[in-house]
Design brief:
With 156 residues, the protein is mainly α. It has 7 helices and 3 strands, in the order H-H-H-E-H-E-E-H-H-H. The chain has one domain: Zincin-like (2-Layer Sandwich). Strands 1-3-2 form a 3-stranded mixed sheet.
Length: 156
């Protein structure tokens, strides 16, 4: 008696999960794992800044969508690690209504590619990209963002 396809698929999925559990270094971090690193990085921000991120949506996806690649004139979807989409706090007005929520996108595959090329700590890479994109939400300059990252790395 042979095994049917759904049974083989279940066995494959279970084998994959067991292998991932016992040999995690053989598998790249998943979307959920990158998301967890991003949430950890967000919590590492000083409270006086983190309080202004309430309502900011953090979304981890594999790659930027085609519209982002076209709009930003990217040669490859690997050319961008993260993106802020929204209205910075310095430009928000009370009259603004019907706008999309402010979002930070982190792109898993480009982040993992950068991580593999540089051997930097993955937590550091995710935190750096997240802080940079949150900085755009605040309307900060690149210099301001470097100070925030340095403060986030130190004691809270």
């Amino acid at each position: 008696m042979g095994l049917c396809l759904p049974t083989l698929k279940t066995i494959h999925n279970q084998t994959f999960l067991i292998a991932r559990l016992f040999m995690p270094d053989l598998f790249p971090p998943s979307l959920d794992e990158i998301n967890a690193l991003a949430r950890e990085a967000l919590q590492s921000l000083p409270l006086r800044l983190r309080q202004f991120t309430e309502g900011l949506i953090i979304q981890v996806t594999e790659f930027p969508d085609d519209d982002v690649c076209t709009e930003m004139e990217l040669e490859s979807p690997f050319d961008i690690l993260g993106l802020y989409q929204g209205v910075s706090m310095t430009e928000q007005t009370v009259e603004a209504s019907g706008t999309l929520p402010n979002m930070v996108f982190l792109y898993r595959r480009p982040i993992l590619d950068y991580w593999a090329e540089t051997s930097e700590d993955l937590r550091h890479v995710v935190r750096h990209v997240l802080i940079h994109e949150i900085g755009h939400h605040f309307g900060f300059s690149d210099d301001d963002m470097e100070l925030i990252e340095a403060e986030a790395e130190g004691p809270r």
